[in-house]
Amino acid sequence: MYNADDEDLTELGIKQAKEFGKRIKDMNFDLIISSPLVRAKHTALIININHNQIIFDDRMRERSCGDLSGKSLETTNRDEYWNYNTTIQYGTSEDIRIFFARVFNFLDELKHKDYESVLIVAHSGVSKAFSVYFEGIGDGLFLNRGLKNCEIKEYVL
Q1: Rounded Cα gap, residues 18 and 133, in angstroms
Q2: Contact, 66 vs 92, CB < 8 A?
């Protein structure tokens, strides 16, 4: 099912976040930057064991699924939905190119900040955009290029 625009973590999500917080407690980072969506905010608060500053940035929001919200994933061709080169527009969902440009803008700005290390709390779609930014567009198919819940990947700007 396509996520509602701003739903909270499930019990499983809370458990995963608590376990993740324990895994990263010895990592040093200057701050946490999080999506402002409730599930990401909640995750950021749970994992913030060391009481780092948290900044919420709208550019880290998940790709808006628009009027697909709450509908079955079978409503669309998921490969096509996450195809950078598609010409198909599914309802009022956010165009993938516009979505990626929003995330790229965030990363371009982050390059000019004086941070040693930043922890980003976001969404699978945002991680797909990160993969393009750092690893290239490849075949343009992104359905399986996103991180899983509480998975971590390190990038160097």
Answers
A1: 29
A2: yes
Residue 155 per-residue DSSP state: -
pTM equals 0.92
Encode the chain (157 residues) as per-residue pLDDT tens digits: 777 668 899 999 999 999 999 999 999 999 999 999 999 999 999 999 999 999 999 999 999 998 998 888 888 899 999 999 999 999 999 999 999 999 999 999 999 999 999 999 999 999 999 999 999 999 999 988 899 998 999 999 8
Q: Which residues are CB-neighbours of 121 under 8 A, at least 6 positions away? A: 32, 33, 34, 35, 40, 43, 44, 47, 60
Q: What CA–CA distances, in Å, run from 8 to 55, 88, 99?
A: 18, 30, 22
User: Mind listing the domains of the chain with CATH numbers?
Assistant: 11-135 (3.40.50.1240)
Q: Are 129 and 103 in contact (CB under 8 A)?
A: yes
Q: Is 24 helix (H, G, I), strand (E, B) or coil?
A: helix
Closest CA to 78 of 121, 68, 135, 123: 68
Residue 143's Cβ-side half-sphere holds a number of Cα atoms within 13 Å equal to: 10
